[in-house]
Structure formats: C-alpha cells, structure tokens
Input
Amino acid sequence: QKEVEQNSGPLSVPEGAIASLNCTYSDRGSQSFFWYRQYSGKSPELIMFIYSNGDKEDGRFTAQLNKASQYVSLLIRDSQPSDSATYLCAVNTGFQKLVFGTGTRLLVSP
Amino acid sequence: KAGVTQTPRYLIKTRGQQVTLSCSPISGHRSVSWYQQTPGQGLQFLFEYFSETQRNKGNFPGRFSGRQFSNSRSEMNVSTLELGDSALYLCASSFRGGTNTGELFFGEGSRLTVL
Output
C-alpha cells in the first residue's frame, strides 16, 4: 500500500463548478497535511496546509481533514480554467520529509 | 524577495559520471530539502538540512549525497550516474524548521539527463 494515494484523474469539471480532490494516507500518526499545485513544466507551489480535523478555508479553497478515516480533501469552488493543474497531496513524516501522492490532474473547461 | 535558485537548470551527463547541483534558499530560510521527481515515481524525498546538519534522509543509495553551508546554501551530489537517475531535482526551502511543518518553497529544478 502506498503511503499517500490519490486518483490520477484527469478530473474534468466545467468552469464555475466545485472540484473535489481526495487523498488517503496510511500512517495514522501523521499530523500535518499539505496540498501543492503543479502546473505543467513548473515546480510545485503550496496552496493549503491543515493540521487539525475539520475544514480550513482560504479564498476559493477548502481543505478537509478526517484523521479517523485517514482522509484529506481539497475543494475548489468556482473553478477557473487557470486552476487546471496537477494537485499533489503530501504528508509530513518528520523534518520537512514530505511523502507526496502521485497527484490528481484537474482540467477545468470554459 | 528572491525565490529559491537552483543551478544549473539543465544538464546532460553520461553513465558513470558525477554531478553536483546547487541551491540557494530564500533569504532567512535555514531548512533546505531535496526531492527527485520522475514521471513514474513522482516526487521523492532525498534529504533535508538545517543549520548545516542533515536531519532526515530518504531511501536513496549512498551515491546521492548532500551538504549545507553556513550561509544555508546547499549542494547535492550524485556519483556514478545511472540511466535511472535522469529526473528533475527540486530544492525546497522552508522558514520553519520544526519537525512537523512542510510549508516548502520550491525552486525551478535542475533537469538531469543521463545518457
């Protein structure tokens, strides 16, 4: 079993819709979780992090964490074509050692 | 504020050679970590340095090594290159040095091709 699992996609949504990206992790002791966005040919950039169970909102983005189910999700409201990218879920296993999922490719069509 | 700077951006080597990659973190960031990104394996952690000390290491062979200097700049070295070492090598810096943070700022990467 991979430590961090994501559906590779692509996840296709129309402009203005809500995109829902999901991630599961295997280490029940994990405490910090991150979502990075990577445009094609570019390096990853941090968009959200969450440490506590529940929801965390930042603009159009909401991260959700359920430690009991070992599940992290990212919701993107009012999706825009510029949101089209690969979204990487990551879990910190200690001292900046992030274990990344393989990413979900999101396509937002105009 | 300047971002994370990696050099060189692109390089081509042949099997058996060695390579050194350089990374200058964001000013004030003391943690520098290195990742390898390939289409098949995704992003994989290599190692992390904080105040010149390696605090964490990934599951890579000993051919992969690194160091950090007193000004927080870091280098990684790969010796006896293999075809499978062809990848994008990403350096990331972090302001926070705690055990449980992961707010990384990535450089643009060094793309290594091994022939």
User: Anything to note?
Assistant: Chain A touches chain B through 23 residues (CB under 8 Å).
